[in-house]
Amino acid sequence: MKQVVYIPLICFFALLAEFCLFNLFGRWGDPQLLLLVVLFFNLYSGVRFSLWSAFWAGMFKDCFSTMPFGTHILAYVVCVYFSVFIRHTFYERGNDLSKLFMIFAVVTANVLVLGFLHQMVFEEVAWGEVFLGIWLPEVVTTLVVALSLFGRLLFLARVLRF
């Protein structure tokens, strides 16, 4: 039950860290920390708490987005169900390479979902520019910090006893 209270706080601090990293380093220094938090709760606590973290991560991201409200919530919920599919079919517990594959696939799915939603709402999307300007930096930086952040979140979960 403690997780219900701590998840919004963890998502808020992940959003603050994303914002600070983006302002300091630009696009090539901005990992998807909120998506990593959602994946951590999927692997550590299961689908229910992952959906709760996806709701809060999407809510915080939607507050500062130019997209219609709820777009990021929908994208994160799709990523939760996609990660559940990957966890049940390809994921091997305790294998870091398997965890990195899952992160790679979910970040790719997140970019695709947000791209299609942007195309549905606003205008045609230049997919080549999306993959070079958005997908590539997000995948590289997220994979670089993923295992370290998972270790820190696991330590935090043990300290907070949830």
Number of strands: 0
Helix proportion range: over 70%
Order of helices and strands: HHHHHH
Shape field: globular
Averaged pLDDT: 94
* CATH C-level label: Mainly Alpha
Write the layout of secondary structure elements.
Layout: H1 2-25, H2 33-44, H3 47-63, H4 71-89, H5 96-121, H6 127-160
Q: In short, what is this structure?
A:
This protein is mostly helical. The chain has 6 helices and no strands. The N and C termini lie close together (8 Å).
How does this structure look, described?
This protein has 162 residues and is mainly alpha-helical. The protein has one domain (2-160): Arp2/3 complex 21 kDa subunit ARPC3, CATH 1.10.1760. It has helices spanning 2-25, 33-44, 47-63, 71-89, 96-121, 127-160. α1 (2-25) packs across α3 and α2 (33-44) crosses α4. The longest helix has 34 residues, at 127-160. The mean pLDDT is 94.
For this entry, give a set of tags.
162 residues; mainly alpha; Arp2/3 complex 21 kDa subunit ARPC3; 6 helices; 81% helix
